[in-house]
Every structure is written in C-alpha cells, then in structure tokens.
Amino acid sequence: MKFSVTQENYTMDLEIFVIGKDLFVTVTGGDTPHIGTVTTLTKDTEIQTIRYPSHDGRFHKDDVLAVRIAKIVQPFLPGSCTITAGVHVNHISKKQIAVSSQMAKKLGEDLKDWLQQTSFDSPEPIYYSDSENPQ
Predict the structure, then answer these.
(1) What is the side-by-side order of every strand in the sheet holding 22-30?
(2) 8 — pLDDT class (breaks 50, 70, 90)
(3) How far apart are CA 96 and CA 42, in angstroms?
(4) Conformation bin of residue 95: beta by default, left when phi > 0, alpha when psi is -120 to 50
(5) In this structure, what are the phi and psi dihedrals at residue 102, rounded to the nearest 5 degrees?
(6) What percent of the chain stands above pLDDT 90?
(7) Is the pLDDT of residue 122 over 90?
(8) Which of the 8 DSSP states describes residue 80?
(9) Which of 31, 49, 105, 111 is close enough to 63 for a disulfide, judged by CB 3.0 to 4.6 Å?
(10) Model pTM?
(11) How many whole angstroms separate alpha carbon 100 and alpha carbon 88?
C-alpha cells in the first residue's frame, strides 16, 4: 500500500509492507530519497530512533517526520512497526520545511485509516513450553 502527499512543489511518499502482523514503513521523497533514520515502536513500547550521519557528518533529521507519523498510528498497531525515513529537497525553502510536518501528519492519518480498515489475520507463532525441547 502506498500513500503520497504533495505540497510546495515536492512529494512525500509512505509505503507499507506487511510482514505477518508487523509493519515496515518507508517515508521518502524530494529530490534525493534515502534512509536517514530508523524509528521503531509497538502499541505498548516507547518510540525509539537511530539517526544516520549525512554526507557532511551531521545527523539526518528525518525522525521528525517518522515520529510524527508514529505518534498518530501507535494506538492502532497490530504488531511491531519499523519506519525508515529519508526526504531530501535540494535547497529546501522555509515554506517547504514548514509544510513537511503537515505532510507527515497527512500520511500518518492515511496510515491510521488504513490500519483501522485492514485485517491482520495471520497465524500465531507456536513455541515450545518450558518442559519441551526440539527433537
């Protein structure tokens, strides 16, 4: 599933990959999509982010977008969720920076709506009990 939003002359995309009851979500866009941050969460765990270094040694700030989305969808998650984010607009303007938060909010709302309408029927894993061992 994929959602897109365009404002101030650039597009941001959110793509969802379902793995059992878990979600792998990519947020990309602009002139040079990339993976700048990785954000992880579940319905009941704290949001955590790893920020990768950018070309000039500073760290990417794409987690601002991912965390905004994560906070919207967290109560609706069926399992774990990993969000990679990387949006780069060449010579980004103040207006483009300002709308990025609104764009992420829109994508978060789209994902929330999709989660509420989607069935995540997958078999539950079966584990050995404490008294059992593999044969």
Answers:
(1) 2-7, 10-19, 22-30, 81-88, 37-42, 45-51
(2) very high
(3) 30
(4) alpha
(5) -65, -40
(6) 89
(7) no
(8) -
(9) 49
(10) 0.92
(11) 11
Tell me how far apart the alpha carbons of residues 111 and 103 are, in angstroms, rounded to a whole number.
12
CA 96 vs CA 36, 76, 92: distances in Å: 18, 29, 6
Name the strand (E) or helix (H) holding 12: strand 10-19
User: What is the rounded distance in angstroms from the CA atom of residue 18 to the CA atom of residue 31?
Assistant: 27
In this prediction, residue 56 has a pLDDT band, given cuts at 50, 70 and 90, of confident
**pLDDT of res. 124:** 87
| 50 φ, ψ (degrees, to nearest 5) | -110, 130
Supply the DSSP symbol for 32: S
* Other Cβ atoms within 10 Å of 113 Cβ, number: 13
| DSSP helix/strand/coil, 93 | coil
CA gap 14, 10 in Å, rounded: 14
Distance (Å, rounded) from C-alpha 35 to C-alpha 54?
10
Structural domain spans, the chain: 2-114
pLDDT at residue number 133? 87
Query: If you classify domain 2-114 with CATH, what class do you get?
Result: alpha beta
- Are the CB atoms for 96 and 29 separated by under 8 Å? no
